[in-house]
Design goal:
nine-stranded mixed β-sheet, TIM Barrel, 2 domains, three-stranded antiparallel β-sheet, binds S-adenosylmethionine, single chain, 17 strands, Arc Repressor Mutant, subunit A, binds iron/sulfur cluster
Length: 383
């Protein structure tokens, strides 16, 4: 049976970071976590037949700050899935996002007993000055303490780092990378801060040239440390790639539960996407049966849309867009159409052919959005 991953969204945070676009709330301002988890459990039970029950490849608790709520509630959700046949085994990767200063030894032991085996730590930066500037509640010492706890149990963890923050220097970023490496992270996700133009954090940011230098510095430092860029924003030592995120990028099914969560199923010819609302009250009303899911929450894909998704997600990966897989899924004529687009990009050094796959070059990575635009297909393109 094919792989299936589950994403569960936990929308509680200590604070609402102004740069964050995720569907989250300050934990004291919404219904308590027990109520929210009951809603998600009802959603699991109501939608259990959308997929075929099987042992899960991955579960990912994302947020928000999943580590903020009682650990028992997280365990409850894993048990609820398994009650309906969506079981976990030793091979299942179970990740939880944790924020510094929200996990203690007791919580950690409960997670471990439930099979959680991967921890994604929202470190962001090890500069207290910059943490303050982006209004984070934690400081670098608290990140180190959280790390010390994870290391004591010899656990698999990953760091999220934010870069190109206002007034951040190359030297400060270099320090962040060095600390992340020194603390033993085998997986690092460096994200370039993205904020709208009018946002207060859009002022005094490193200029474009400097941002490119930052990208290159991160790349060189991590590669030197034995990590490879397996996806545009993700580095790992071999064997430590996020299996869950790889599901998203390799055309495999995932079931998203909870507020704002997105799913992808292959039940229709070209696959379907469906998603939950971003507002907690609307989500609650839908789960409780007081409001209908509406048509704008599902998209049954047509061939040109599936092809667009396939090209975009594959090109994000260092493994690239495999010609064989393209032919298998879409046929030789469509693969030819893609090849016509690739040829000029190879000439401009934006893509290159590595064995049987089209891959972004270093130059292509820097302008990946422009490359993806070329691989956005309309129905008429395939007529
Ligand atoms: C879903 S968030 C949750 C992680 C955790 N709550 C935290 O903030 O540490 C996952 C990651 O997205 C990244 N992120 C959030 N907002 C961003 C933005 N505006 N630009 C770039 N990365 C962002 C952060 O690095 C964050 O760790
Ligand atoms: S803690 Fe993380 S998820 Fe919560 S608001 Fe801040 S960036 Fe967003």
């Amino acid at each position: 049976m094919s792989d299936l991953g589950v994403y569960i969204h936990i929308p509680y945070c200590l604070q609402r970071c102004t740069y964050c676009d995720f569907a989250t709330y300050v934990h004291t301002e919404i219904r308590p976590p027990q109520d929210y988890v009951s809603l998600v459990k009802k959603e699991i039970s109501d939608k259990k037949n959308l997929f075929v029950p099987r042992e899960l490849k991955t579960i990912y608790f994302g947020g928000g700050t999943p580590s903020l709520i009682q650990a028992e509630l997280i365990v409850d959700l894993i048990s609820e899935l398994s009650k309906f046949g969506y079981t976990t085994g030793p091979q299942t990767e179970i990740t939880i996002e944790i924020n510094p200063a929200t996990v203690d030894e007791r919580k950690l032991e409960i997670y471990l007993k439930a099979g959680i085996n991967r921890f994604s730590v929202g470190a962001q930066t090890f500069s207290d000055r910059l943490l303050k500037m982006v209004h984070r509640e934690h400081n670098a010492d608290q990140t180190r303490q959280t790390l010390a706890l994870l290391r004591k149990y010899n656990l698999n963890f990953s760091f999220d780092l934010l870069f190109a923050l206002p007034t951040q220097t190359l030297a400060e970023l270099r320090y962040d990378i060095d600390v992340a490496v020194e603390l033993g992270s085998k997986h690092i996700s460096p994200y370039c801060l993205t904020v709208p133009e009018a946002h207060p954090l859009s002022k005094n940011r490193p200029l474009e040239d400097e941002q490119v230098q930052m990208f290159q510095m991160i790349h060189e430092a991590l590669v030197k440390n034995g990590q490879h860029r397996y996806e545009i924003s993700n580095y790992a030592q071999p064997g430590f790639e996020s299996q869950h995120n790889l599901l998203y990028w390799t055309d495999r099914q995932y079931w998203g539960l909870g507020l704002s969560a997105h799913s992808y199923s292959k039940l229709s010819e070209w696959g379907s996407r469906f998603w939950n609302p971003n507002s907690l009250e609307i989500y609650a009303q839908q789960v409780l049966g007081n409001a209908q899911q509406n048509d704008s929450q599902i998209e049954v894909l047509e061939k040109h849309q599936a092809l667009t998704d396939f090209c975009h997600t594959s090109l994000r990966l260092s493994a690239g867009l495999s010609v064989d897989k393209l032919v298998n899924k879409f046929g030789a004529t469509t693969a030819e159409r893609v090849r016509d687009l690739v040829t000029p990009m190879i000439k401009h050094d934006l893509l290159h052919l590595v064995s049987d796959a089209y891959c972004l070059t270093e130059k292509g990575i820097l302008v990946s959005n422009q490359v993806f635009e070329k691989f956005t297909f309309l129905k008429s393109d395939l007529a």
